[in-house]
């Protein structure tokens, strides 16, 4: 049988999930970010042992978006979150499913591609979007999925290729072509 001193992070997670009473034997430093996510999602009572600095942006998205957590535990973890570690794509993944974290978002991290992805799932963030940064291709991509934003479009930015792509998916938007 393997000695506890030889256990790696994943092995500690498996042991602690089945036998939380073994916490006193755990070498918490061996747990990596993804190990903490798995452990805390199933055994949130170990949050006082967590080495929060080991969690990266994707780890935070996984932890805060975990199906196993209720809102009380969710807010406990949010209080520890190092929001600056989240990339633009991390923010898209989190806000698409958990828009309640928008107050923490560093919106400037979102690229136009990130905005297109987010707006497909959460149109409520449209007022925060930097529409002036969209080029013709960006508008074409977004409007193919979300024609609801047609009233915000700078139609003059679309070239013939953008129009062809857009109208293939959304032919009803051809009425805007005269706006060029």
Structure, explained:
- The chain has eight helices and no strands.
- α7 packs parallel to α8.
- Helices cover 42% and strands 0% of the residues.
- It has helices at 9-18, 33-42, 57-64, 71-78, 88-97, 112-121, 136-145, 160-169.
- The chain is elongated.
Key structural traits:
180 residues, mainly alpha
Ordered list of secondary-structure elements with their pairings:
Elements: H1 9-18, H2 33-42, H3 57-64, H4 71-78, H5 88-97, H6 112-121, H7 136-145, H8 160-169
Helix pairs in contact: 1-2, 2-3, 3-5, 5-6, 6-7, 7-8
Q: What is the structure about, briefly put?
A:
The protein is built from 8 helices and no strands.
Low-confidence blocks of residues? none
Q: What is the count of β-strands?
A: 0
Which class do the helix and strand fractions yield? mainly alpha
Radius of gyration: 22 Å
Tell me roughly what share of residues is in helical segments: 40-55%
Query: What's the helix count?
Result: 8
Strand content: under 5%
- Listing every helix as H and every strand as E from the N terminus to the C terminus, the arrangement reads HHHHHHHH
Q: Quote the average pLDDT.
A: 93
Write down the overall geometry: elongated
Biggest beta sheet summary: none
CA(first)-CA(last) distance? 74 Å
């Amino acid at each position: 049988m393997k000695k506890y001193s030889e256990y790696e992070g994943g092995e500690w997670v498996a042991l602690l999930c089945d036998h939380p009473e073994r916490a006193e034997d755990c070498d918490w430093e061996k747990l990596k970010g993804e190990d903490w996510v798995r452990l805390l999602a199933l055994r949130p009572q170990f949050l006082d042992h967590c080495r929060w600095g080991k969690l990266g942006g994707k780890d935070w998205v996984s932890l805060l978006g975990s199906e196993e957590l209720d809102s009380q535990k969710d807010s406990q973890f949010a209080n520890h979150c190092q929001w600056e570690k989240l990339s633009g794509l991390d923010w898209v993944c989190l806000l698409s499913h958990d828009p309640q974290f928008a107050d923490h978002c560093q919106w400037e991290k979102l690229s136009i591609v990130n905005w297109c992805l987010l707006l497909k799932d959460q149109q409520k963030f449209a007022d925060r979007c930097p529409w002036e940064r969209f080029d013709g291709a960006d508008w074409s991509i977004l409007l193919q999925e979300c024609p609801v934003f047609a009233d915000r479009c700078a139609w003059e930015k679309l070239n013939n290729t953008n129009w062809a792509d857009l109208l293939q998916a959304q032919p009803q938007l051809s009425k805007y072509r005269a706006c060029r």
